Amino acid sequence: DAKVELRTTGGNEGDRTESQKRRRRVVLLHKPRGYVSHHMPSIGNRDDRKYPSGLFLLTRRNLIGSAAIPLFQPGGKRIRNRTYAPAGRLDVDSTGLMIYSGCGVVARVVTSGLVDKEYIARVRPARPGFKWEEANIDRLKRGGAMLQGSKRALLPMKLKWDVKVKKEGHYNIHRPPPLRIVVREGQKRMIRRMCEEFLNMVVVRLHRVRVGPFSLEGIAEGKWRCATEEEIKILMSLEKNERETR
To answer: What biological process terms from GO does the record include (predicted)?
Structure first.
């Protein structure tokens, strides 16, 4: 009982020990284009199977900072990838922050609807001469819109142009600025689909910069680092707050 009490009372040694254990089992990768997020060749569609896994990038050479020796396979060159699974997905054409976790609790919180996921989408008009109004974006912000073939409505989201380039009261439709999008759900290819179906824009590049407290800042493409103790504490506080408000 005392052990349980230590783990559930904030700011004590039990919390710190638990956070230290979990941080060693959560890694953050800057995934380049051309890599799949999963590691089993039988997972994903047939086209995905010809691409390497992002787990292959989790080597000592690509590591930023230091990591515990048990993370690595005998010989010390590559992480023990069979003990890590993707917490969420990025498709093969998308880049940015990919989280791999050997901790089921962390993976569950990351993939829940509690955590913001922030993307930058570079887009182009789906067809020449198309014009649209700010109402198109407002509709997505409010939530409730349905993607084709989906069985549930989109949740409210944050969505804005990174830079406003206006021409005659409209954004420059020939060269639109990037879209910054923050969502809490993860329907299949959701951002690409909603941009095309509701904004008539094709996503030419999708880049994830943040998942909850985990940021891509300081991680070059193809590099990775372990999560920090503070990041794990912030993440787990989201779940704790959710339990307390039920």
So the answer is: pseudouridine synthesis
Q: What are the pLDDT digits (tens) for 22-74?
A: 556 899 999 999 999 987 555 555 556 688 999 889 888 899 987 655 566 55
* Three-state SS at 7: helix
Residue with tokens 């020990």: 17
Domains of the chain, start order: 2-114+216-245 (3.30.70.580), 117-209 (3.30.70.1560)
Other CB atoms within 10 A of residue 156 CB: 12
The residue to which tokens 């069979």 are assigned: 82
User: Alpha-carbon distance 64 to 56, whole Å?
Assistant: 15
Residues whose CB falls within 8 Å of the CB of residue 225, separated by 6 or more in sequence, listed in order? 27, 28, 63, 64, 65, 218, 219
Residue pair 90/31 in contact (Cβ under 8 Å)? The answer is yes
Tokens of 219: 């991680």
Q: Report the C-alpha gap between 144 and 164 in whole angstroms.
A: 26
Helix (H) or strand (E) segment spanning residue 98: strand 95-101
